[in-house]
Write a structure and sequence with these properties.
Blueprint: E1 6-14, E2 17-22, E3 25-32, H1 33-42, E4 48-52, H2 55-58, H3 64-73, E5 78-81, H4 87-96, E6 100-103, H5 105-109, H6 112-121, E7 126-135, E8 138-143, E9 148-153, H7 154-163, E10 168-173, H8 185-192, E11 199-202, H9 208-216, E12 221-224, H10 226-232, E13 247-248, E14 251-252, E15 254-255, H11 259-262, H12 279-288
Parallel strand pairs: 1-4, 1-12, 4-5, 5-6, 6-7, 7-10, 10-11, 11-12
Antiparallel strand pairs: 1-2, 2-3, 3-15, 7-8, 8-9, 13-14
Helix pairs in contact: 1-3
């Protein structure tokens, strides 16, 4: 950990919608991506992370217009991930208003893309996104938003992308994603001690304490979804309302994708698996724990 910790809400986006799943499966549509983004900005987020979850599958990034709209109203750094396959793709998103681009699938297929991007735009704009799945103690690099496995392992690939010019690593544990059981601290410590660039930990936050723990494990920034999303979409409760009748503050409850998978956690009448927290609440908790945070817009 160096300097003040950054708090970065992650917005998984499919079409115009903000979605959230579990281990990259069973997506729930939560509402308007731009609506959540503006709320996070107003509440003091340090940066935002946009992930197009179907971009690599369809070999394109569909976030250009959303990025343009976001950049008009939100004045904190924005990282965009998903489907970025060329320097021209990077240029399009950066011109639209992104500050950084995060690359996973295309870089694994052609590692030179990292070097090419860093040469044109500078390392500070190039983030290497590592989607990691742990199998029998081996941290495998996966691609296509968790749809494909590679022969690469986390530490060796992290060192290579940094050598090629990546200025930051976005480290996501697929095993922990959406589970609310905490970050993979062993993975974060492994990568943080293997590279010299900032590491953004992602995947698994269920409580404020989880963010504290991953910072102590070596993360320079923390990215989270469910813990924030489910705080900012609290419905107005009435005794006679059923779960499916509750209207959310920033959208309506809609399940899509693998609904059977959702029913094991976020779906149906079951409780979500996180303790929702607002960004000011998280920052206050971290500062009280001796961890410096940035003040942000509204903190």
């Amino acid at each position: 950990m160096t300097g003040a910790i950054r708090i970065i809400p992650k917005l998984d986006i499919k079409g115009p919608n903000l979605i959230k799943g579990i281990q990259f499966e069973g997506n729930r549509v939560l509402g308007s991506a731009s609506g959540f983004a503006e709320q996070y900005y107003l509440d003091g987020a340090d940066e935002l992370l946009y992930q197009d979850v179907v971009a690599s599958l369809y070999l394109r990034n569909g976030l250009t217009e959303i990025v343009k709209k976001t950049a008009q109203n939100i004045f904190i750094p924005l990282t965009v991930a998903g489907g970025i396959r060329s320097v021209e793709d990077m240029r399009t998103l950066l011109r639209a208003g992104a500050d950084k681009v995060a690359i996973n699938t295309a870089a694994v297929e052609r590692p030179e893309l990292i070097s090419e991007g860093a040469k044109v735009f500078g390392s500070q704009c190039i983030v290497s996104s590592l989607e990691i799945f742990e199998v029998d103690g081996v941290y495998q690099v996966w691609v296509d938003f968790g749809r494909g496995v590679t022969k690469r392992t986390a530490a060796e690939w992290a060192r290579e992308v940094v050598d090629r010019g990546a200025g930051e690593i976005l480290l996501t544990s697929i095993n922990r994603d959406g589970m609310g059981k905490g970050y993979d601290l062993k993975l974060v410590e492994l990568i943080a001690t293997s590279v010299s660039v900032p590491v953004v930990a992602c995947g698994g936050a269920g409580t404020k304490e989880d963010l504290k723990a991953v910072i102590e494990a070596g993360a320079d920034a923390v990215s989270a979804s469910s813990i924030f999303h489910y705080n900012y979409m609290k419905p107005t409760q009435t005794p006679t309302m059923t779960f499916h009748e509750k209207r959310l503050r920033l959208g309506e409850h809609i399940d899509s994708g693998n609904v059977e998978f959702l029913s094991q956690g976020y779906g149906g009448e079951q409780a979500i698996m996180v303790q929702p927290s607002g960004i000011p609440e998280v920052k206050s908790f971290l500062r009280d724990s001796g961890i410096p945070t940035r003040l942000g817009f509204a903190v």
